[in-house]
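Thread amino acids onto this structure.
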């Protein structure tokens, strides 16, 4: 029997994802028509003998309860949301809920970070871990990065024969390796012995020196720094390198990239979720496109490629949408253009308006360039070229232009804007 744990953090995290996370928890933001962590749940459901999925975070239960119930009914698997009383860190939350994870004596358990988007190779990861179960406590999914990109992630050095991790550094200040941690793991239950030793050591240090915050200093454990780094070189940690698509969802621009790749994965795994061809009752579609059945789209509109249209959306005559996400109940009026943008819930784009971003597309010839999350501002304080984002309930007047801008929720614009954040 196997289990899976999805770590989603809480409302104090994900500030780089604003304004999209102001009206909905980041883990529930729809990418390719599904909440982000529903992609995690689908990947877990495909693993044989996986009987339970635990979602751990410190979002209020009320924000996750309906989603958890829907997922249990849809996938016929036990799913529970475990709420932390405060931020405990990635390892602290696992150790705090260790009894729930160990219940039923699973052979091993997966841990997936909630801000990861990927073609999850969970079955291969478990098989790799199972072969080394007698010695390895954890198997880390890894992928290749460039020298510069690797500095933003956990870097590891592995033995090419045994695949054991001999050295691990989280976000090093200088180059260590191009092999990085993807934030996806398989753990043996014995890992809780290591976590317990680290927890007890922090308690002893607190009582010895008598300073600091008791709950923060003793209960807060980071998986990468407090657990994985000391395990490196002990023969108890291995890494499986994958070439599957992988990315992080740190910024809103990363959502556009993840949307593109999840739509591409649908062609093989869920073709029924894609809208294809030209249908008189719908519109002209340039694949890959996902359109919710409740959306109403004029037959003269042109949608795609790489577009997701949410429930209740209304799209008027002659509208052109490309490389974008349009969220629930948004209205795009006739002859408008939406490119490289995210249109928030209940937002309205007026007639003949132009909403456009200019994303920094990665160089496909460079390893792992797809994982880049550009900074919001340049060194001189100017807004970086990026996608345009409308928060929920934003009104864009007719015949205006929005370029590389971010608009917070509940705003009624009165003019064209370029490279601005409208607060």
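Threaded sequence (423 positions):
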């Amino acid at each position: 029997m196997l289990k899976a744990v999805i770590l989603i953090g809480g409302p104090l995290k994900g500030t780089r994802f604003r304004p999209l996370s102001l009206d909905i928890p980041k883990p529930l933001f729809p990418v390719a028509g599904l909440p982000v962590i529903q992609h995690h749940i689908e990947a877990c459901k495909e693993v044989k003998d996986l009987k339970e999925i635990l979602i751990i975070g410190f979002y209020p239960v009320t924000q996750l309860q309906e989603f958890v119930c829907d997922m249990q009914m849809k996938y016929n698997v036990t799913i529970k949301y475990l709420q932390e009383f405060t931020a405990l860190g990635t390892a602290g939350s696992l150790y705090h809920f260790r009894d729930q994870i160990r219940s039923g004596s699973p052979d091993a358990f997966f841990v997936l970070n909630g801000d990861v988007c990927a073609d999850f190779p969970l079955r291969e990861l478990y098989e790799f871990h199972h072969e080394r179960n007698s010695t390895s406590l954890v198997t880390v999914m890894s992928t290749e990065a460039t020298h510069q990109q690797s500095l933003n992630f956990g870097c590891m050095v592995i033995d090419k024969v045994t695949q054991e991790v001999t050295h691990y550094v989280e976000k090093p200040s200088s180059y260590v390796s191009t092999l990085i941690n993807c934030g996806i793991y398989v753990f043996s239950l014995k890992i809780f012995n290591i976590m317990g030793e680290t927890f007890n050591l922090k308690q002893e240090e607190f009582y010895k020196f008598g300073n600091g915050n008791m709950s923060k200093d003793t209960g807060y454990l980071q998986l990468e720094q407090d657990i994985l780094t000391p395990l490196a070189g002990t023969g108890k940690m291995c890494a499986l390198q994958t070439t599957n698509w992988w990315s992080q969802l740190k910024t809103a621009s990363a959502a556009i990239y993840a949307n593109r790749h999840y739509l591409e994965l649908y062609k093989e795994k869920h073709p029924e979720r894609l809208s294809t061809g030209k249908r008189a009752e719908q519109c002209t579609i340039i694949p890959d496109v996902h359109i919710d059945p409740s959306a109403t789209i004029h037959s003269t509109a042109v949608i795609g490629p790489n577009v997701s249209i949410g429930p209740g959306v209304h799209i008027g005559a002659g509208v052109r949408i490309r490389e974008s996400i349009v969220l629930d109940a948004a209205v795009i009026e006739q002859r408008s253009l939406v490119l490289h943008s995210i249109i928030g819930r209940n937002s309205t784009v007026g007639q003949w308006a132009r909403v456009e971003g200019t994303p920094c597309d990665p160089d496909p010839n460079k390893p792992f360039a797809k994982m880049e999350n550009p900074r919001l501002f340049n060194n001189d304080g100017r807004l970086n070229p990026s996608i345009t984002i409308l928060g929920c309930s934003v009104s864009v007047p007719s015949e205006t232009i929005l370029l590389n801008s971010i608009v917070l929720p509940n705003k009624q614009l009165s003019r064209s804007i370029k490279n601005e954040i409208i607060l």
